Amino acid sequence: MLRLIREGGDWRTLSAELFDGKGSWGNGAAMRVAPLGAWFADDVAQVIQQAALSAQVTHTHPEAVAGAIAVAVAAATAVTEPDLPPGRFLDRISENVPASMVRDGIAEARQLLTIGDSALAARMLGNGRQVSAHDTVPFTLWVTARERHDFEAAMWTTAAAGGDVDTTCAIVGGIVAASGSTRVPSEWIRQCEPLPDWAGVPPLERESDAPGGSPPQR
Predict the structure, then answer these.
(1) 77 among annotated binding-site residues
(2) Which of 17, 85, 140, 203 could, after both became Cys, cross-link 171 (CB 3.0–4.6 A)?
(3) 166 is in an annotated binding site
(4) In whole angstroms, what is the distance from residue 96 CA to residue 61 CA?
């Protein structure tokens, strides 16, 4: 797709033509959208609109769009209502997600909140092995509903379920970091490779825990 765009193709047409004209229902849009949800956290209508627009650049299938909306609303809710109980947290997300298998999965995730075993929850909700939003996003929201105030616990809970771990951890990490209520372990920060000079960002904190993330200041 990128090659075709470089050759003059219109990304709107190319994205919609993927997978025999159905568009991708994968997780790329959901993986990258949490910061957007945090940025527009004070306006849920904007969260929904911008999440949908950001998804359609690469993932036009309705399930992928629904997954992006769900993650963006989750990040926004983590910012604006950090103390919601897990069930209400998932309710708030479901209220804003269009009818879809993703939304059905979130409803199932709510019913599974009493389960403490992430591997069991993943067997019922999916863990990304099918590379689809509806097989991935509900499980990540199950994790964040339970663990969004503890970054390390959220990451280990997600990873323990196996599957497409880089995808599920990216989604969970984005939502949990948006809340600003937890920190990345300092040892994890120390293990990170430094960003290149051309990135123009300050070095990562090394001596103390770095914030897991906070709402951007506008």
Answers:
(1) no
(2) 140
(3) yes
(4) 18
Fold of 12-193+205-211: ADP-ribosylglycohydrolase fold (1.10.4080)
Question: Of 101, 100, 83, which Cα lies nearest the Cα of 92?
Answer: 83
**Is the CB of residue 61 less than 8 Å from the CB of residue 23?**
yes
Of the pLDDT bands very low, low, confident and very high (cuts 50, 70, 90), residue 204 is low
pLDDT digits (tens, 9 = 90+) for 63-102: 999 999 999 999 999 999 999 999 999 999 999 999 999 9
Which tokens belong to 135? 């097989």
Radius of gyration of the chain (CA): 17
> Is 197 labelled a binding residue?
no
The encoded tokens of residue 145 equal 């509903």
The residue whose two tokens read 């099918």 is: 130
CB 40 within 8 A of CB 30: no
Q: In degrees, to the nearest 5, what angle opens at C-alpha 179 toward C-alphas 175 and 180?
A: 125
Instruction: Write out 131-199 in H/E/C secondary structure.
Output: CCHHHCHHHHHHHHHHHCCCHHHHHHHHHHCCCCHHHHHHHHHHHHHHHCCCEECHHHHHCCCCCCHHH
Instruction: Report how far residue 87's alpha carbon sits from residue 101's, in angstroms, rounded to the nearest whole number.
Output: 19
